[in-house]
Amino acid sequence: LIDRLSNDTVGAGLLHFALRRSHNIHWQATDVNKQARSAQKRQKACLLWFTGLSGAGKSTIANLVERKLHGRGLHTYLLDGDNVRHGLNKDLGFTEEDRVENIRRVSEVARLMVDAGLIVLVSFISPFRSERRMARGLVDDGEFIEIFVDTPLAVAEERDPKGLYKKARRGELKNFTGLDSPYERPEHPEIRIDTTVNTPENAADLIIRTLEQRGAVDPV
Ligand code: ADX
User: Fold this and answer.
1) The pLDDT value given to residue 24
2) Distance CA 20, CA 72 (A)
3) Which end of the chain, C or N, has fewer beta carbons within 10 A?
């Protein structure tokens, strides 16, 4: 039902109202806004959303992209699933419900950071289309760039950098993405990276070139 409601604007509005526990809260406009904050940093704020299986290479690529942007003097912040789960989201596990809340919180944090004028990189499995759609809706048109780090399950499992696939196959980890928990592939990502033919370095360059072409960052 939640998925169906969040599919359209009226449904999403209803859902938002139903889930809200605080009322009589009014939006407080501030004089220094996103435009002023990003102009001071000489950049456009945006949200680079990396999605893909565990072990797909999201964090490696996002880390490289951030290094390159930072090297150009741009102001960035990388929110990584494993790290955010050490703090803000440490009360959440991997049930469907917890993953939905995981993405809701990180997308709200990302929205605030975009409002602060930053180029924000989010690297979370974010397996559900409805939550990625929700995150997209939190920022302005054109600010959300979905980057699908497309690695086939067999390849991610073969790499298994943290030994988690092995654990899951042994039955020691439940609800593992791609095995007994679903991953919904993006249908129209702004960028798709096939990691079976691209090195992380290539992938990062490709992403930055696309950002330049889209006018999200200035070419050097
Ligand atoms: S998400 O699905 O809720 O977006 P998130 O990106 O925060 O996931 O966390 C994924 C990381 O948690 C993986 O990189 C992996 O290291 C670890 N992990 C532990 N248990 C699981 C699991 N059951 N499914 C997927 N990842 C898991």
Assistant:
1) 87
2) 41
3) N
Nearest-angstrom CA–CA distance, 78 and 97: 24
| DSSP for residue 172 | S
Residues of the chain with pLDDT under 70: 1-13, 15-16
Quote the CA–CA distance of 47 and 55 in Å, as a whole number. Answer: 22
pLDDT at 29: 87
Q: How many CB atoms lie within 10 A of CB 90?
A: 8
Q: How many CA atoms lie within 13 A of 112 on its CB side?
A: 6
- Residue whose CA is at the smallest distance from ligand 1 atom 12: 82
What letter would DSSP give residue 79?
A: E
Place of tokens 């009322």: 23
| Ligand 1, pocket-test mutation among 130, 151, 177, most atoms within 8 A of CB | 177
CA distances from 203 to 61, 86, 142, 186 (A): 7, 27, 21, 18
Taking the centre of ligand 1 as the mean of its atom positions, its distance from the CA of residue 53, in whole angstroms, is 9
Alpha-carbon gap, residue 98 to 89, rounded angstroms: 9
Please state whether the predicted TM-score (pTM) of the whole model is above 0.70.
yes
Q: Residue 132 in 3-state DSSP? A: helix
CA–CA separation, 59 and 38 (whole Å) = 25
Query: Which residue type, as a one-letter code, is found at position 215?
Result: G
